Amino acid sequence: MIRISGLSHSIAGTPILRDIDLTIPRGGITALIGPNGAGKSTLLSLIARLQKIQTGTITVGDLTIGTASDQDLARTLAVMAQSSHVQARLRLSELVSFGRYPWNRGRPGPQDHARVEQALERFGLIPLRDRFLDEISGGQRQRAFAAMAYVQDTPYLLLDEPLNNLDIAAARDLMSLVRDMADTDGRTVVIVLHDINYATAFADHLVVMKDGAIAAQGRPDQTVSEALLEQVFGTRARVEILQDRPVVLV
Ligand SMILES: Nc1ncnc2c1ncn2[C@@H]1O[C@H](COP(=O)(O)OP(=O)(O)O)[C@@H](O)[C@H]1O
Ligand SMILES: [Mg+2]
Predict the structure, then answer these.
(1) Closest CA to 156 of 250, 56, 62
(2) Which residues of the chain have pLDDT under 70?
(3) Considering only CA atoms, which of 100, 87, 5 is closest in space to residue 46?
(4) Of all protein residues, whose CA lies closest to atom 7 belonging to ligand 1?
(5) For position 36, what pLDDT does the model report?
(6) Which ligand lies nearest the alpha carbon of 211?
């Protein structure tokens, strides 16, 4: 479980997050949705300790962000950031193997190699393993970053808009892998999604943000409605229920 309480954050005097209290359940997929600038990435980066907490507290499992050791946190929480700019000329398999760092401190053993092999297989990356990251497509790169987060073997996984710029096939493939990490491996996944229809199709729990605050949360079918789209996104779109899931018609 991730517990956030009294969390506020400002940048250069401008409030970005306003007194957030939120509990993210253990297990399954929680999707964070909301308009651009709502504060989703800021919230995720505070959970992932990529920024220092100014006010409030966050606990992940029984670890408190800010006091737990880096090693304990790295073995508990893996992050895939919104845009990962890797400068070095790295091969895909090398990137994935970095995910093992919290367990081997840069000295990989047979178990680490086996985990990386298994991840390359599971993420369909075997044919690309020796390619440099600048020689593969955006979708393949995003799958590689997801595989790196996967081999970190953490109970919690944070993904910030992993579907950015992916075509429908790549997006559906990646979401199936994410779904499987929750279902088969029992990971708790927190994922920022731009497309509400992906959120309602794949998530168990939705958290809707607007202006640095939580506007709504709950099961997708209890959360996404025409009224919510108007209130939070300021747009009048039709919502239909298909196979028990709300679907936004654009
Ligand atoms: N480094 C920064 N400097 C100034 N403002 C920032 C910075 N990062 C984010 N913001 C502002 O904080 C708000 C929330 O941003 P963000 O968390 O990225 O939102 P989201 O991920 O929901 O689109 C936005 O208004 C954004 O402009
Ligand atoms: Mg963002």
Answers:
(1) 62
(2) 84, 87-88
(3) 5
(4) 11
(5) 95
(6) 1
**Are 174 and 166 contacting, i.e. CB atoms less than 8 angstroms apart?**
yes
Give the number of the atom of ligand 1 that is nearest the alpha carbon of residue 34.
Answer: 22
The CATH H-level superfamily of 2-249 is P-loop containing nucleotide triphosphate hydrolases (3.40.50.300)
Q: 245 by DSSP, 3-state: which?
A: strand
Separation between Cα atoms, residue 165 and residue 142, nearest integer Å: 10
Q: What's the gap in Å between 192 CA and the centre of ligand 1?
A: 14
* Domain edges within the chain: 2-249
What is the structure's pLDDT at 87? 66
The confidence score (pLDDT) of residue 84 equals 66
Token pair for residue 188? 């708790």
Question: What are 156-214's pLDDT values in tens digits?
Answer: 999 999 998 889 999 999 999 999 999 999 999 999 999 999 999 999 999 999 999 99
What is the best residue among 11, 160, 190 to mutate for testing ligand 1's pocket, by most ligand atoms within 8 Å of CB? 11
Residue ranges lining ligand 1, Cβ < 6 Å: 11, 16, 34, 36-42
